[in-house]
Structures are given as C-alpha cells and as structure tokens.
Design a protein that fits this description.
Blueprint lengths: L1 H17 L3 H18 L1 E3 L11 H7 L13 H12 L1 E4 L3 E4 L10 E7 L2 E6 L4 E7 L3 H7 L4 H5 L2 E7 L1 H8 L3 H22 L3 E2 L7 H8 L6 E9 L5 H6 L15 H12 L2
Antiparallel strand pairs: 1-6, 2-3, 4-5, 4-7, 5-6, 7-9, 8-9
Helix pairs in contact: 3-8, 4-8, 7-8
Length: 271
C-alpha cells in the first residue's frame, strides 16, 4: 500500500514539473517572436563601389522602361539599387553621409521594396531589409496607381516615401520643397544605377497616396512620393504588347497613362 502511494506521489511531482509556468510560457513566446523577427530580416550584400559603366554612358543610355521580363532580381542587384538611392557613403570631411544629398542632413526619405515575396522596409544604417507585409502586393499597388501595369509586372518596385516633419523641424514651410528635391536625387540615382547594371525602370508619381499607404501598411507619416518599377526590360514591341495582362486591374488601362493608351490602340488596329 505504501509503495502505491509513493508511486502516485512521484507521478504527481513529475506532472507538476512538466507543466510550464506562466512566466516560462511568456518567455517562450518572446523567443519565438524574436526568431520570427530575425527570419524577416535580410542582411543585404555589400554594394560595389566600382562599376563597369561610366557615368556618362549611364546618363546617355537612361530611358523609361515600362515592360519587364519575369526574371527576378538578385539580392546583389537589390542591394546595389537601394545603396544608390540612400546608402551610406564616406565623406572625408564630415564622416558618414548618404549617396544622395539631404538638406541639413536631416534624411526625411524612407524606402520600401515591393516584390512577389512581400513588402520590405530598407534599413539604411545596417543595410538590411525588414519584411513588414507578407504576400505579393504588386497588383494592389498597381491599382492604387491608376492601373499602371508596369508596377504589377516588375520584379520589384522601390517606393520612396517622406517624413516631412524631419525637415520641417528646421526649415519650416520650405520643407516640402527640400524634401521633393531630395526625392528627385534618390530617384535619379536608382535609375542610373539600374542602367549601369543592365536593368530598366520608370519613375511613377500618379497614384492615390492614401491607397498606397493602405496597401503597403505604411506609417501615417510616411507619405509616398515615387513608385519606381525595376527589372530586366523588354525592348521588342511584340513582346511588350503580348506581355500585358489587363485583367488584373480594376481600372481601364487607357484612363491612366498616355503610353499605355498608345500601345492599347496599336493592338486594336493590328499594327
């Protein structure tokens, strides 16, 4: 009889020991959350500082590319494009700086990457991508931009947003002017870097700001200024024409972009 009670006592003690305490469960959840967060962080490769194409040739070769192949961009290519836009550089006089000038070095721009894998925020200081939204949002982003097909077709889109308050704190009512000038610097850097890597892109400013913010789950003060689709461009008109899938858009493509209208009309008249 005594042996039976001892066995029951041992079983109870074992069960109590196996039962996790509330604080232990909370710790496990924190660890799990941290691991998931780390998995969502992508450390980008170090960008190249010496390219094969001269600046003059890149300037002379730059043109808007609105149609793309389905070829994905490599992590090295994405790294290079983001670095060109807002990456850290070294100034011999002032120390660390950015690849694009900023009024008062206040750095109001925040960059996002939209691809088939989700939406990412670019962390300049550590040169990383942090996933903020799952799944492919390119078609939704295209709809927010009046149905511009290039956004849905491009392997990636770089979205340039601005936090006006950073610049306004010093420059007041002139802040929007300085921020917009800076966005132009960053966009041109992206486009020239794309040309230097044999890629193409087009800067897009026609979109509904609030819809873009909603699709990408942007913070309220991150206001979108540019959407730049990027990828390997198609140059053959036949490929261009047959590569368009208008069914993914809610809007009539002819309502948004004269370029789209032109080629839509070409397909109708068979030329």
């Amino acid at each position: 009889m005594c042996q039976m009670w001892i066995a029951i006592l041992l079983i109870c003690l074992f069960c109590c020991g196996c039962r996790a305490k509330p604080e232990e469960k909370a710790a496990e959840r924190r660890i799990s959350k941290r691991i998931a967060l780390e998995d969502a962080m992508i450390k980008l490769p170090e960008p190249k500082r010496n390219g094969e194409m001269s600046l003059e040739k890149a300037l002379g070769s730059r043109e808007c590319k609105r149609n793309f192949t389905e070829q994905d961009l490599t992590l090295e290519q994405i790294s290079q494009l983001l670095w060109a836009a807002q990456g850290r550089a070294l100034d011999a006089i002032t120390g660390a700086t950015r690849t694009a000038p900023s009024a008062g070095a206040l750095q109001p721009l925040e960059l996002y990457v939209v691809s088939k894998d989700g939406v990412y925020h670019y962390g300049v200081e550590k040169h990383i991508l942090k996933k903020i939204k799952e799944r492919d949002r390119r078609s939704q982003l295209a709809n927010a931009a009046l149905g511009q097909f290039s956004i849905a077709e491009a392997p990636i889109n770089i979205v340039i947003t601005a936090v006006y308050g950073r610049t306004a704190a010093k420059y007041g009512e002139r802040a929007p002017r300085y921020v917009h000038i800076e966005a132009g610097h960053a966009a041109q850097n992206i486009l020239l870097q794309a040309v230097a890597m044999g890629l193409g892109g087009v800067p897009i400013g026609a979109f509904h700001d609030d819809q873009v913010q909603k699709v990408l789950s942007l913070p309220q003060n991150h206001e979108p200024l540019y959407i730049i689709p990027l990828g390997s461009g198609l140059t053959n008109l036949k490929n261009f024409q047959t590569n368009i899938n208008y069914s993914i858009f809610k809007h009539d493509p002819c309502d948004c972009d004269p370029f789209v209208y032109h080629f839509h009309r070409l397909s109708e008249i068979g030329t």
